[in-house]
Amino acid sequence: MSHPLKDQVLTRFAGASARTKAHVRARLASVPWPALLERLPKSGLIASLGCGHGAIEIAAALDSASRQFVACDIDDAKLTQARNAQGSLPIQFCSGDLWQALATRNTRADAVMAIDVLYLFDTAAQIRFVNQAWQHLPPGGRLLIKEMAATPRWKWGWNRLQEWLACHVLRITASVEGVVGLRPTSWWAEVLAREGFAAVRIQPLDAGYFHPHALVTGVKP
Ligand SMILES: C[S@@+](CC[C@H](N)C(=O)[O-])C[C@H]1O[C@@H](n2cnc3c(N)ncnc32)[C@H](O)[C@@H]1O
Fold first, then answer.
1. 12 CA distance to ligand 1 centroid (A)?
2. What's the confidence (pLDDT) of residue 180?
3. The CATH number of 4-219 is which of 3.30.420.40, 3.40.50.150, 3.40.50.720, 3.30.830.10?
4. Lowest-pLDDT range of 13-22, 87-96, 171-180
5. Residue 110 DSSP symbol
6. Mutual angle of helices 76-86 and 4-12, in 10-degree steps
7. Residue 66 burial (10 A CB sphere; 0-12, 13-18, 19+)
C-alpha cells in the first residue's frame, strides 16, 4: 500500500541486510499500520511489546513528533537493525522485559501496545500481559492489542498456516514459549473486560488484506 511515510521508513533500513529489508517491506505491505497509527495516542510514552525491527514504531514516531516509545523484543538481531534505523527518533529499543525497561525509567506508559506478538505466548502469559499492562497504565491509559479475528474463516486459516511456517519452518519469528497461541480478538476483548478495562472495542482492520487483522482496545478507568 502507498502511504507518505512508507518510503521514509524503508529509507532508514537502506543499510540493512537484504533479508531485513525484505522482512520490513513485507511487514509494511501486510500489516494495516496506517490504521494503527490513527488509533495510537498522538503524544506521550507508548510501551511496545515485541517490536521486531521497529518499523511500526519508527513510522509512528515519524507520524507524530510528540510520541515516544519504549519498545522491547527478545530478538537482539532485529533490535540492532531497529537501532540502526531509528536515527534520532525518541525510541528506546530494549532487549527483554518491557516492564523492567519502564521501571528503569521510573515511569508509567500512556499507552501499551502489542502488535502481532501475543499469539506467541501461552494462555497464562497472555493473561499476565493484560494484567501487567493494567498495572503500568495510569487512569485514562490505553491498551492496544493487534491480533486476528476468527472471521472470515479462510483468512483465519491462512494466518494459522503462515504463522506456523514462520515459527517452525522459516524461523523468522522467535518465541520463548515455542507455541502458536492464536486467539481470536473476541477472546482478547473478554480478557480486557475481565481485567477491568472500559470502552473495550474490537475494530476490524482487514479490508484489503489477506489476514483477518483486528485491533482490540481498552481504557483503564
Ligand atoms: C510477528 S513479529 C511482530 C513484530 C512487530 N510488532 C511488527 O508488527 O512488525 C513478533 C515479534 O515478537 C517477538 N517476541 C516473541 N516473543 C516475545 C517475548 N516474550 N517478548 C518480547 N518479544 C517477543 C519476536 O521476536 C518478533 O520480533
1. 20
2. 65
3. 3.40.50.150
4. 171-180
5. S
6. 110
7. exposed
Q: Which amino acid is at 59?
A: A
What distance in angstroms lies between residue 51's CA and the mean position of ligand 1's atoms?
A: 6
Cβ of 59 closer than 6 Å to ligand 1, yes or no, is no
pLDDT band at 162 (very low <50, low <70, confident <90, very high): confident
Does 79 contact ligand 1 (Cβ within 6 A)?
Answer: no
* Owner of C-alpha cell 533490535: 79
Model confidence band, residue 139 (pLDDT cutoffs 50, 70, 90):
very high
Asked which of 44-53, 66-75, 116-125 is least confident by mean pLDDT, the reply is 116-125
Atom of ligand 1 nearest to the CA of 78: 27
In this prediction, residue 2 has a pLDDT band, given cuts at 50, 70 and 90, of confident
Q: How does pLDDT run across 77-97, given as a tens digit for each residue?
A: 999 999 999 999 999 999 989
Measured from the CB, is residue 115 less than 6 Å from ligand 1? yes
- Report the separation in Å between the CA atom of 80 and the middle of ligand 1, taken as the mean of its atom positions: 14
Nearest alpha carbon to residue 81 among 29, 12, 30:
12
Give, using CA atoms, the residue closest to atom 8 of ligand 1: 115
Query: What gap in Å lies between CA 171 and CA 152, rounded to an integer?
Result: 27
What is the residue extent of each domain of the chain?
Answer: 4-219
Residue whose C-alpha cell is 499507552? 111
